[in-house]
Amino acid sequence: MAQSPDPIMTHTLVSLDDITAAAARVRGVARRTPVIASARDGLFLKCENMQPMGAFKMRGAYNMVAQLAPDVRARGVITYSSGNHGQAVAMAARRLGVPALIVMPETAPKVKVKGAQAYGAEVVFAGRTSFDRKQRAEEIAAAKGLAMVPPFDHEWIIAGQGTVGLEILEQCPGVGTVFVPVGGGGLIAGVATAIKRTRPDVRVIGVEPAGAPKMSTSLAAGAPVTLDRTASIADGLLALRPGDLTFAHAKAFVDQVLTVTDGQIAAAVEWLFATAKIVAEPSGAATTAAVLAHGQPPGETVALVSGGNVAPEDFARYIADGEREGAAQDR
To answer: For the chain, which residues make up each domain, given as ranges?
Structure first.
């Protein structure tokens, strides 16, 4: 595993003003999603699966594409994504009237590929890892003069995702703990920044798959670490490495990062559907999995359900796997 220098020494952190400006910019584009009470007393669910393209990613993508210089934006935008960020960039590009090209892994869920294409984006496939698709996207961007919209490690992306944190504080003023899923770290960087710069007493807990512990490994090492491999049903949380900037925010503002197994994630997918009628993809159910598996903190707790883009046949399989996991725990 490779380790990088301390990013806090080399990066300026996103400010609360940046996130507030992003909230004004994405208003009317990203939906103000509801916070609903769950079947467990004191546990609330922030339903970003109810965004127009089914995930929180629209916030950061639109915040960045909208700020590109008009002549740069007109040439077109490109990104690399396992799915949800790609759909978000495609949707943002369509709203702003510019072409988009999305580089996805060969293993990308079909529902996410079709989602990006439905918004008019061209989809190119490259390898299976985040490194594969990033390298291919950079090659195409250089050849065609396209503007790169990175999936997480950029201040405009982080600020856009941070608008979720502002909404949580407004919608659940008594909140004591917020659970946030961790992929490359853009969401937790933004949410933790918004919360800690407003309410430093609120705990922010990150959640990542046991098969992709890039942020917890990096925090333990004191600098970003690149994992040799990642594997999980939570396809949106499989980055091999946190970003330098997202890591800096996590180091500054995140209280703890927990991991959950695929069985625990599947059980949470089933629990959310059975008790709240929420369709959550595995990445979106990871936070609920952490609450169910590791215990609910005292006081009001919010679990961020980050996305719901999942094929019906896969969703049915996760439900069945979750039921088996729950039955095994009951024995």
So the answer is: 2-55+154-330, 58-148
